[in-house]
Specification:
Strand order of the largest sheet: 1-2-3-5-4
Shape: elongated
Structural class: alpha+beta
Distance between the termini: 81 Å
Number of strands: 5
Mean pLDDT: 83
Strand content: 15-25%
Length: 157
Amino acid sequence: MGAVQIVGIVALVIGIILIGVEVYLPGFGVPGICGIVCTVAGIFLTGRTMPERIIAGVIAIVVIAVMLVISIVVFNSKSIKSPIKLDTDLQGKNLFIEEKDMEYLIGKKGVALTDLKPSGKGEFDGVKLDIEASGYIKKGTNLTITAIKNNRIFVES
C-alpha cells in the first residue's frame, strides 16, 4: 500500500466523519460540503483501479447509511435530546382557528395600524390582526372586516 492510498484512506475517514457531523447539525453547511469533497477524494485516492474505487465508494455509502440509521434510532428514543427534532409538545385542544370560527369578525370596525399594501395590521376591539385589503389603504384609516377566506381577513375602508 503506497502513500497515496494511505492519504486516500485518511481523507475517506475524515469525509465520513464530517458527513456524520452534518447529520447532527441542522442545515447544509461547511461540514457537509467538506465531508463530500473529502469522501470523493478519498474514494479516488484509495483505489488504484476503477473496480477498487467502486468498492471503496460502496463501502463509504454503506458506512454513511449505517451511521444515519443509528442516529435515527438513537434520536427517536426519548432519553437523548435530538438537535434537529423539536421535542416540545404543543398543549391545548384548539391550536388552530377554523374559518367558520372567525366569521363572527365580519362587520367589526377597526383601524389600520400599518399601511395596507395590500396586507398589514389592524386593530379591532383591542385585538391586533393581520389583515388584507383589495388595494392600498393608509395607516390610521377606519376599516370594516368584510370577508374571511382561507383564514385570511379581508377589510375595506
